[in-house]
Amino acid sequence: MITPSKRHTRLMATAGTLGGVLALTALAGTGNAATSGNNAGNSPKPQAQASRAGAQDASDARIGITPGEGAHNVGITGPVKVTVSNGKLTKVTMTAVATGTEIPGTLSADGTSWNPNGRLAKATQYQVAAEAQDAQGRPATGNATITTVSPANDFIGHLSPMDGSTVGVGMPVTVTFDKAISDKAAVESKIRVSSSSGQQVVGHWLNGNRLDFRPETYWKPGSTVTVQLTSHGVRKTVTFKIGRSQISTVDARTKQMTVVRDGKTIKTIPISSGSPEHPTYNGRMVISQKFGQIHMNGASVGLTKKDGKPAYDISDVPHAMRLTDSGTFIHGNYWGADSVFGKANTSHGCVGLKDAKGGGDGGQPAAWFFDNSMTGDVVIVKNSDDKTRLAPDNGLSDWNVPWTQWVSGNATG
């Protein structure tokens, strides 16, 4: 069962002009962000989520969710559909993220498709979760989070992390809009972020739809971060706490990961990172989601064999934590030989830690790391063969932007 842990607050923003001047009119609820087991997102240069070794009992069922993970401006009638090939759907739920309200739907008589009943609400974020089985009873899962179209002059923004949450020192404040913002200064002027540590916090537009805030260095452990959103003289406040500091460094050359908590090394773990053909990104990444178990499919990130089949299809990858939107995870690996960890880089771009099938052995390195990590923790990869630049908006990769460049991306000066 996929259990996403990254939380969002939803806010409605009404544009005062066509240029996108923001007036915050409401803040509503919290919910779970989702990642699709069959769709890893739309970021460039996908990195796959699993080793070259494939699970022998992978399901033949293939779930498709239309319009797909991360879609914005989705129509309120007709376009949402869940389908499956080589199997039958066993369960589909569609939930409004802000309220938790489940949307009723209809499963086709042959069990191969599902549609919501009636119209969806405008300017609303929905989470779709689907389960299926193939002819041999092997399970498959798919998930997607979509946002429906808003009125002509409205914008929907999603603020992360969640009010009242505790996160690691690397968690930026992220505001993602469903439409590109033209008057960035006007929008940014309505949002203020501060820390009880006294650190200077600056906003930076990573693209036309996303505004992130962070200090020059990681947040101070134990501090409280306050986000203030102002509209027509009314202020809404969101706060979250920074937990202990945990920085884990993966050395692709030595194939070891060093876990440092509050300045002290607490564990060194043998790993297997990306192969020479599919090297892991170098750079500073942040854990954005945690999954006790997740389905990973090479086709979702464009990795297929000559016959068109996925390069890998593993339905039950344990202890998986997302590092980038394009599909880089640090996760448990039960299919690799013991000799792999600390000795060879064999994955399609992820970082693998030794684990047991089902993830039930708490003594395995992957289980330990999962249990001792939180969203917002930093994972640094170095000495990988990868020569590309990790885009700062690919996941929560903000810390790869030098401070002077970060400040220059502030729209309010």
Automatic annotation (TrEMBL):
It comes from the Bacteria. One of its GO terms (cellular component) is extracellular region. The lineage of its organism: Bacteria, Bacillati, Actinomycetota, Actinomycetes, Kitasatosporales. Residues 1-28 form the signal peptide. One of its GO terms (biological process) is cell wall organization. The active site is at residues 331, 350. InterPro entries: Big_10 (IPR041280), LD-transpeptidase (IPR050979), LD_TPept_cat_dom (IPR005490), Transpep_catalytic_dom (IPR038063). The keyword Cell membrane applies. Transmembrane segments: none annotated. Gene3D superfamilies: 2.60.40.3710, 2.60.40.3780, L,D-transpeptidase catalytic domain-like. Keywords: Acyltransferase, Cell membrane, Cell shape, Cell wall biogenesis/degradation, Lipoprotein, Membrane, Palmitate, Peptidoglycan synthesis, Signal, Transferase. It comes from Streptomyces broussonetiae. Pathway: Cell wall biogenesis; peptidoglycan biosynthesis; Glycan biosynthesis. This is L,D-transpeptidase family protein. The keyword Cytoplasm does not apply. Residues 246-382 form the L,D-TPase catalytic domain. GO terms for molecular function: acyltransferase activity; peptidoglycan L,D-transpeptidase activity. Residues 35-63 are annotated as: Disordered. It holds the Pfam family YkuD.
